[in-house]
From TrEMBL:
Residues 507-528 are annotated as: Disordered. It holds the Pfam family G_glu_transpept. PANTHER family: GAMMA-GLUTAMYLTRANSPEPTIDASE (AFU_ORTHOLOGUE AFUA_4G13580). This is Cephalosporin acylase. SUPFAM superfamilies: N-terminal nucleophile aminohydrolases (Ntn hydrolases) (SSF56235). It comes from Deinococcus radiodurans (strain ATCC 13939 / DSM 20539 / JCM 16871 / CCUG 27074 / LMG 4051 / NBRC 15346 / NCIMB 9279 / VKM B-1422 / R1).
């Protein structure tokens, strides 16, 4: 049933793209973008800037990521695209038999998997970075120690988390409240927050090249807190963790090449959806309801494959080639019609992720994403460290026959996916991404279609009204989509719901480089505190 559209005065207005020559950093928090820019101006490259931005984001946007989360990256360097999977696995003691009541909870220790982000930073920097690692982390340390004022969307998300955790009232949240809701602190725009524990942790990471987090002092503190409060994560799990350099997967679409990280990430869902669209002729106008209907239906098929087959390929083979084949696209296309269909899978709408894009004046470009999941993550904070642990284990399946079934040492299905756009001849265009749980491949699909098919610049592609498929025939749309288009989708069998919260539709960034002049063109998310720092 269609709910009536209402005017939302907070809905973003369309902005102009940004241009620069020497460097560009785009992310969801202005201070983090400025941290990356300062590293570029100090002589660093795009990877140095990306790592600096990522570290700063754990301080200045803890509502969506943290030191206890995972990360993925796509790096254009040396004339090729490199992929890094910095996601962690289930602890050795975590199994289906260990689940309370056979279910995976959202909060507490049970859904905590090994955090991979910190090792991801050190691996990226060790392979491609130029400046000293301690110099790269210095802005994040400064923000943590000296404090910073909260931006508007950050403050709203922080206040929402406090209300949620108070309502849940779990004993394990005690250290979370000490860290993120200390006495006298109320999250509001302009309110100052600092964390000396976070600063000391970042200093240890900087001094040891991340070793303290996985084998040293910090690993010992994580282990001790787990043993004292009923967690299964151990120092041996941290010591065994390694990032994985992977070959990006891709599909070609309308003269362009769209790249993703291979499973255990869900980026393949966006690629399958693009393949399903490939043999169909999208209408000339982006706002043609026939085209929107086709995109939604294709996205459902992408999720069908992702939810059926994506898992940790170290444990379960994933036939990426078959899933991206023309034959698979044809099979899916045969199921689509003029009316909405139920793909018999679902896309939960929970999230909590940060995305960043960075580029330098030497051709280097980075697409990077990191997350704690569901906002602050598990709610578990290691005392005195600022380390908020994620809850990525919640994405494991509890059916032992499913490819993504929980198993010790196995990485879960992962929602966070950096994207990268190139041309079909293999030359680069630039990084892009849309954060937000299961909205991510849907947002990426829409940004690619807006850019490649409809010729939008990065800011237009990000600002354009979005839709989000939830489950069955249910689709949420932004108010700016308009009554006429929404009713046209209803006529095609979609259960359309108007969602007034712009944060539900993801938060994206995009940078592309002119191949002739080297000029950088960027867009940032207007649904959040998005910012592009330019040089």
């Amino acid at each position: 049933m269609l709910r009536p559209m209402t005017h939302n005065p907070e809905y973003p207005v369309v902005r102009r793209p940004a241009y620069a020559r020497r460097g560009m950093v785009a992310t969801s928090q202005p201070l983090a973008a400025q941290a990356g820019l300062s590293i570029l101006q100090a002589g660093g490259n795009a990877v140095d800037a990306a790592v600096a931005t990522a570290a700063a984001l754990t301080v200045v946007e803890p509502t969506s990521n943290g030191l206890g989360g995972d990360a993925f990256a796509l790096v254009w360097a040396g004339g090729e695209l490199h992929g890094l999977n910095a996601s962690g696995a289930a602890p050795a003691a975590l199994s289906l038999e260990a689940l309370p009541g056979g279910e995976m909870p959202k909060y507490g220790w049970t859904p905590v998997t090994v955090p991979g982000a910190v090792r991801g930073w050190t691996d990226l920097h060790g392979r491609f970075g130029r400046l000293d690692f301690a110099q790269v982390l210095a802005p994040a340390i400064r923000y943590a120690r000296e404090g910073y004022p909260l931006s508007p969307v950050l403050a709203a998300n922080w206040a929402r988390a406090i209300r949620s955790y108070w309502a849940l009232n779990l004993p394990i949240f005690e250290d979370w409240f000490r860290t993120f809701a200390p006495d006298g602190f109320t999250p509001r725009p302009g309110a100052l927050w600092r964390s000396e524990g976070h600063a000391r942790t970042l200093e240890l990471i900087a001094q040891t090249g991340g070793a303290a987090f996985y084998e040293g002092e910090l690993a010992g503190q994580i282990d001790a807190h787990a043993q004292a409060t009923g967690g299964l994560l151990r120092g041996s799990d941290l010591a065994a963790h390694r990032s994985e350099w992977v070959k990006p997967i891709h599909t070609d679409w309308l003269g362009h090449r769209v790249y993703e990280i291979p499973p255990n990430g869900q980026g393949i869902a966006a690629l399958v959806a693009l393949n399903v669209l490939g043999a169909e002729r999208l209408p000339e106008l982006r706002d043609d309801p026939a085209g929107l209907h086709l995109q939604i239906e294709a996205m459902k098929r992408g999720f069908h494959d992702a939810h059926s087959y994506v898992a940790d390929p170290r444990h379960v083979p994933v036939d990426v080639e078959g899933l991206l084949s023309a034959a698979n696209a044809e099979r899916h296309r045969a199921l689509l019609g003029e009316q909405a269909h139920d793909p018999a899978t679902h896309a939960p709408s929970t999230g909590g992720t940060v995305y960043l894009a960075a580029a330098d004046d030497e051709g280097g470009m980075v697409s990077m994403i990191q997350s704690n999941y569901m906002g602050f993550g598990s709610g578990v904070v290691v005392p005195g460290t600022g380390i908020a642990l994620h809850n990525r284990g919640h994405n494991f399946h509890t059916d032992p026959a499913h490819p993504n079934a929980l198993a010790p040492g196995k990485r879960p299905y992962h929602t966070i996916i950096p994207g990268f756009l190139g041309r079909a001849d293999g030359t680069p265009v630039g990084p892009f991404g849309v954060m937000g749980g299961f909205m991510q491949p849907q947002g990426q699909l829409q940004v690619v279609v807006n850019t490649v098919r409809y010729g939008m610049n990065p800011q237009q592609a990000l600002d354009a009204p979005r839709w989000q498929w939830l489950q069955g025939r249910t689709v949420e749309v932004e108010p700016a989509l308009g009554d006429q288009l929404a009713r046209a989708l209803v006529a095609r069998g979609h259960d359309v719901r108007v969602q007034l919260d712009p944060g539900s539709f993801g938060r994206g960034q995009m940078i592309r480089r002119d191949p002739d002049t080297g000029v950088l063109e960027g867009g940032t998310e207007s649904r959040t505190d998005g910012h592009i720092a330019l040089w």
